[in-house]
Amino acid sequence: MEPVLSLRSWLAKVESFGELRHVKGADWDVELGAIAELSYRQPNPVALLFDDITGYDSGKRVLTGSTGSPRRLGHTLRLGDDLDDVGLVAALRGKPSQWAAAAADYPAETVTDSPLLENVIDGPDVNLLSLPVPRWHTGDGGRYIGTGCFVVTRDPEDGIVNGGCYRMEVQDEGRSATINAVPGKHGAQHIQRWFELHGKAPVVVSFGHDPILLITGGTEVPARISELDYAGAIIGEPVPVLIGEHTGLPIPAGSEVAIEGWLRRDHVRNEGPFGEWTGYYSGKRRPAPALEIVRMYHRDDPIQLGAPPGKPPHDYSYMRTVMKSAMIEDALVGAGVAGIRGAWAHESGGGRLFIAVSVENRYAGQAKQVGHLTAQLPAAAYMNRFVVVVDADVDPADLGEVVWAMSTRCDPVKDIDIIPGTWGSKLDPMLVEGAPPYNSRAVVDATRPFERKADFPAVSTGDPEYLQSVLHRWAEVFAP
Ligand SMILES: Cc1cc2nc3c(=O)[nH]c(=O)nc-3n(C[C@H](O)[C@H](O)[C@H](O)COP(=O)(O)O)c2cc1C
């Protein structure tokens, strides 16, 4: 029987609803990534399972596009197996805060058996390049085994486990890999604290699993909640884990491939550049902590879960937009702000850079409150650049409507606030090489001025009820 969070069970389900395609014979060196990139641009992209990858035995596979459709995302989040876009967003409303609240009821459960133990390889014999690790984009500095990965760390003081998704480049001909967690991310904070207290940090990484771990590891689950427990709350049962003999850290028992090891402050390797979610390569090759791998585990014929970023739409941009939008809306409601109608973290801004929020705007100053709060929410603060607040009659997910509101309800001289010195990133193409990773952000109030709400010019579309009756009467004009 397959373990809980087995990628193979997930693949069987997705195949049953016709959203999996098998690709044989692609080269790990750029070609596989290029095929994946072309597929993201299709109207309803399927997931791709690559096998017979050049230079590797059959069975050593790579999956891409796992969360790129409403049906796959809805299935992965256990919200339903036949959801469309609208249905998914509706089903997700309110869920992130419910999952966060329920996580404590689903602590990860220790087990001693798992197919992951089919192959156990100790330090000196570890070779990550025994797997067909892709070089995803032409300009990448190396082969990235960590894209859809789940990096497990533990707070050295309170013991809380974190699971995060951070890019990892293979180093030292396969004996090591760098981990690139941005300062401020929970995993990066754990590692930093271990360095300060003990000089080294224990880490476990899973490279193939039910994509629920890509979603929970790759989006802003609140601090002090383990992503393993949060995933348990989503699936409605505890996540089974093996305990790493060397690090004592939990390893998802449903994993296809996992490693255990230690990061040390002075053990670094140059990594990058890498084609990132901003749509640009991430600057120069720079030092990053490299894992001293003490053990590798893998199933027979392991499957890597790939999730390469790039110019949107990319592998996980749909998932990020849908998840971040729900998390931001939830956080605003949870902060006690009245009249929130919706939030949307647009895909073309990588789900981070451009966020629109729609609000009823019930009192003078509310639009600014919502805008500034959104720009600094833990779910949104990293690498945001624009927040646009719109009235409740504007759909924040419709870029055309948002631009219309900005163009007609906003006086730039007083309705755009600029906040300097905010949480940016080395990935920012606007950052000058070597400068500290701040950015600035603009909070745009594109709501009707509160004091003019009553007499602001009326919107010149027909009355909805009247339009509906006309549509009915003139149906033949609109027949497809
Ligand atoms: C496929 C993928 C790759 C990612 N790569 C990185 C990365 O290299 N570095 C990073 O700091 N965050 C990266 N992220 C974003 C983090 O996973 C995300 O911010 C997450 O909330 C971090 O978890 P944490 O706050 O618990 O550390 C990536 C996300 C995804 C989905």
Automatic annotation (TrEMBL):
Residues 113-312 form the 3-octaprenyl-4-hydroxybenzoate carboxy-lyase-like Rift-related domain. Residues 12-81 form the 3-octaprenyl-4-hydroxybenzoate carboxy-lyase-like N-terminal domain. One of its GO terms (biological process) is cinnamic acid catabolic process. It comes from the Bacteria. GO terms for molecular function: carboxy-lyase activity. One of its GO terms (cellular component) is cytoplasm. InterPro entries: UbiD, UbiD-like_C, UbiD-like_N, UbiD_Rift_dom. Residues 318-446 form the 3-octaprenyl-4-hydroxybenzoate carboxy-lyase-like C-terminal domain. This is UbiD family decarboxylase. It comes from Kibdelosporangium aridum.
